[in-house]
Amino acid sequence: MKIAVIDFSSTSLSLIVEDISGEMMIPVVGLRRSVSILGYLSKKGRISERGIEKVVDSIKFLMDAADKVGAESVHIISTASMRLIRNYGEVVAAVKAGTGLSITNLDGQSEAYADYIANREFSALGSSLLLDIGGYSSSMVDMASGDQNSMFALDIGPAALFLRFDGMYPKKGDAKKMRAFIRKVMEKNAAFTGRAFSRLILVGSNAEALYGVYSDYYSLPDSSLHIMERKKLKKLIKYLISSDDRALILIRNVPEKVHTLIPSAVLAEEIASIFSASELIVSDKGVKDGYLRLLMEEMNG
After folding, report:
1. DSSP string across 222-281
2. pTM
């Protein structure tokens, strides 16, 4: 049975279709449509009518792709950060009217648990902290524990950080403010206080985009394993904040994420610094993959 999951986030809509047979899951197709909600968001936190139309059209496109490969059911999920959109109910109603499908909005802990399920194999590496760089929020999971008490969803996503400074790109002072805000939120929520992790497992399209820029900057060869060194990431951030050429590398690699790439980099490096992690591994599996696995487990009883 082929099942499709569409993930509606603040920066994109993405699709995966997998063929499920018993406990086997075989990937069929994966697609992404870049729809940056930031570009359609008013100062009052409302998505414009044109933005809603773009969301509905993109979902229709992905549903058509799922249908062409024989998907028997399609599920749409949205992340916890989407609840911050003031007219989110209008978006849900428009999607229902335009596609016939409802959107399942995952709360922070459900989102973190789906991330954990999708990336359980990384627990074999030992001391690892999973960081899902979302839009307005980010999830963190201690990969050594399946206990949901070891999972946090905090309002420190790159889109939220982007709104804390003026202009397209942050300045040096803005980066310091973002770092201070990140540490303040971490301390307030007592997230893994006093812990240390050897590495971060980065999840989400923002993490993938960050690796694309990192790989280009350091001229890395193609590899199935995407690893960043914290010290080198910190050097890249200095370049992205101060260099007059930063626009070139961003537009070349992530034109749809010019708003969120630098905040994503600052967030990843600051979390790695807080927990003394020396390397960051970018996973290609995220919330929708974990949600699909949970659907499979539910089907198998």
Report:
1. P-SSEEEEHHHHHHHHHHHHH-TTHHHHHHHH-GGGTTTHHHHHHHHHHHHHHTT--EEE
2. 0.85
Name the residue ranges covered by the structural domains of the chain: 2-105, 109-282
The tokens describing 41, both together, are 């968001």
How much is the pLDDT for 90? 92
What is residue 27's three-state secondary structure?
A: strand
Two tokens, residue 215: 């790989």
Cα–Cα dist 119/199, whole Å = 14
Distance CA 154, CA 77 (A): 19
pLDDT digits (tens, 9 = 90+) for 183-225: 999 999 988 888 999 999 999 888 999 999 999 999 999 887 8
Does the domain at residues 109-282 carry the CATH identifier 3.30.420.150?
A: yes
Give the phi and the psi of residue 15 in degrees, each rounded to 5. -130, 140
Contact partners, residue 49, CB within 8 Å, separation at least 6: none
Tell me which of 3.40.50.2300, 3.60.10.10, 3.30.420.40, 3.30.559.30 is the CATH number of domain 2-105: 3.30.420.40
